[in-house]
Each structure stands twice: as structure tokens, then as C-alpha cells.
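Incident log entry.

Two folding requests arrived from the same account within the same minute. Monitoring flagged them as a possible duplicate submission, but the sequences differ. Recording both here for audit purposes.

Request one:
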Amino acid sequence: MRPDVAAFDAFAPLYDLLMPATDRTALRKGLFCADREVDRCVEVGGGSGRAAREVGAAVVDPAGGMLRRARRRGLETVRGTAETLPLADDSVDAVLVVDALHHFADHDAALAEAARVLAPGGVVVVREFDRSTRRGQLLAAGERLIGFDSRFLTAAELETAVAAAGLDARPVEYGFGMTVAGVKEKE
């Protein structure tokens, strides 16, 4: 188990008390980029489901403690990692990654998996922290201090990574909290 996963498993009971609220507006802007109706949505690395509950998504996460919290909220949960999603090809309309990409072992593999499970016209919405901002630099330093193996991207790097996954990258929001959507081309 990656150190980040073990930490979140242990931290699960306090997570929602200490984390800021999800930016619902940024998520909805990202979901609006889809070229299809969004009925089936999953949050990858969704932890306790704080973002998933805002948009009615299921949660995929490797930390059992976090999944228990999400289930208590009435959310559908699946244990799995972002790099090997336990979902069928073209099976969802939207994939959310909220404040989690920096914890994934392989960003490129995670984004490729998100693209694989998207139905044509579906959207991946990545909400992350831009390491090029002053607050982003402080957050990255803080996570290193507590032992996380986090790897933050800049806005340009995130757009490039989304495009490299075969998605049409659409920047939604820039700043410390950035949002990039990636739409899968319709066949």
C-alpha cells in the first residue's frame, strides 16, 4: 500500500472535519463541457465522497476507511486505484478527480484509465492545485513534510497530460485551485 493511501485510511475519521468544502461551481462548469448527458458519474480518488455527493457520483478509492465514510453518506463505492480502474470501457459519462491527482502514483496512467472508461462525448474533470502559485508551493512543501509522495502539476502541465490521454483539454479555471476538463471525442 502506498504511504499516501495508508495515511488516508488512518485519517478517514477526521478528513471531512479538516478539509475545505468542494467547489461545486468549478465541478459543474467542468461537467458542462461534456458533449453528452451526464447520468453516470464516478469520482476517482474520491475518498469520503465530499465531492461525489455534490454531483451524485459513485466513489472509487483504494483506502477502505475513506470508502466506509462514503458509504455512510449513501454513496455507491468501489475499491480500486486510479491507474487500474475496476470499470468497463465506455461505461461512464463523467470522471471527477478532485484534489487527488497529486496523490496518484502515475498521472498519465490514471488519465488514460479515465479516458478508457468514458463513453464518447463524456468528460474528465480534474480539480487540482497549481504548484506554480505561491499557495501551491506551500502546499507541496507541507505535504512533503508530513511524508506524502505528492506530485503537483502546473496548469500547463495538467492541460498537456489531459491532451496526452487522448482528450480534448478545455481549461475551466486557473489559479491556486485549477480545473481542467477533457472531453472524449464522439465516434
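Request two (distinct sequence, not a duplicate):
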Amino acid sequence: MTRLSSNHLLGLKNLTPEDISLIFETADNFKAILNRPIKKVPSLRDITIANVFFENSTRTKISFELAEKRLSADIVNFSSSNSSVSKGETLIDTVNNILSMKVDMVVMRHPAPGAAQFLAQHVDAQIINAGDGTHEHPTQALLDAYSIRESRGSLKGKKVVIVGDILHSRVALSNIYCLQKLGAEVAVCGPPTLIPKYIEALGVSVTHNLEEAIEWCDVANMLRIQMERQDTKYFPSLREYTMQYGLTMEHLNSLKKEITVMHPGPINRGVEISSEVADSDQSIILNQVENGVAIRMAVLYLLAAQKEG
């Protein structure tokens, strides 16, 4: 297979296992390019990409920008905090204004779940979802799965536990879809108040005990506690959360095996993960950051090829 099955990247739910394999193969090639002295290729020289961020994001935005620059695309950056959106302009108006500047692709982050899907139905450009509310974050899930594949060989039969604030996490949902499509077993772990009611319907097992979770898993993906999305108190205090769900070297040393530790970032050191664990040999957090650029290059490149095809 040499083409994606969709003209947009809205979420992992709609991608096929073949799509994911194609993205990974393409990312392998780009990763080789990123390790060369000259890291730029002219693949998207005639493509204009708008990065439209209605929510603050440093890491995802920089990663996309870097991927776009490495592919020689022209870039328009737009952030809503200093734009007409704060004056009441609608999502469609904003994007149509950007498209009237002849933009080919829109990378969008938005606080409303389903915003990317809505946009794809209403504007004539390819949409890449860089996170929509608490719904999905497809490129993060792709880079996470790609990083596990790199660290562990294949994903088939691997046991992955996602720990933390599952309720408010778009990363968790995209990861569950992606990992299951690649044959991994998925569990979630966290306080009962931060585990959504529907989660078991997705074929995921649930535990509230961190020791049990790491005993079971090959890979632990530690999520950040998303204080900014929590409108009520879901646990007594951060200190209490850390005592029950913070991953430490004591935990890792108590295991009879080595597990791979991941984190989508930014890390709250000393909360969901100790500094020692974050900087240990079992952590692949910096590999995730590096792989993020290669994965996003692959997605941009493959979507641009769809348009030409």
C-alpha cells in the first residue's frame, strides 16, 4: 500500500492498520534524513500549511513547524489568543480567511471535541488534527506507538498500561485505538474518579493499583495530570496522587524485568514521574520527542501525495 485511506488525519479511530504501517515506513525514511548533516528535503516545496492553534501548545506546535520546515513547506502561523477569534469570529470564518490566502493544509488544535471533523466537512483543505479537546491527538499516538516499536521490536502482543488522568486525556483515547489496531493489549490505571465509565467498552482493562499495573505491563505511558481541564477536584491533593500513582525508581527496581517508560510531556517532575525515572535508561521520553518530528513529516508528506494523486 502506498496511499493513505483518507485525505485528512482527524483521529486514529478512522485509520486502518495499513495506514499506520505506511506512516511508520515513511517515518523510518525521514528519520534517516533527520540524522544527516543536511536535514532538509524539497518534498513540500509548493505546499502552504497553516498552523491554527486555538489552544496553547508549545511542544506539538514546534514539532509540526520543524517537520514542515524540514519538508520545505511555506508556513502560516496563527494563534487565537491574539486574533479575531477572541473578538467573536467563528471557526469557519477564521479558517476560510486563511484558506483565501491559498493554503493547502491546516494543522489545527482546538478545545472543542470534533472541531477537526467539523472543519474537514466545511472547508476545502486537508485537515490534520493536532488535538481536539478531550477527544483525540492522533500524531501523539502515532509517535508513541512508533517509539514503542523502536524500543520493543513489534507491538503485537505487547502489554501497554496508560497511567493517570484518562478522563481528560486526548492522548489516552488515540493511544488505545492505535495500540489495539497494532495488536497490543491495553490497560488503564488511575484513581476511579479519573477513569471514564465507557472505557471498558473499548476492550481495555482497568486497575486502580500502580504496582499491579507495572507488574503486568511491558510499557508504562505516564500521563500528565491536566489541572487546566479539571473543573472539580478529582483527588484530595497532588501529594496524595503522587503517593499512589507517581512512578519512582523504587517501583522499577522492585520488578524482575525492565519496562519501557514513556510520557507525552510536558512532565510534572516529582508528580506523575520522578526525575530519576524520567532520566533513566528505561525512559524513552526524549526518543518520543525526536520521533515526533519524523512522524509528523510522514503524515504531512503522505497527505500532500493524496492531493496530487
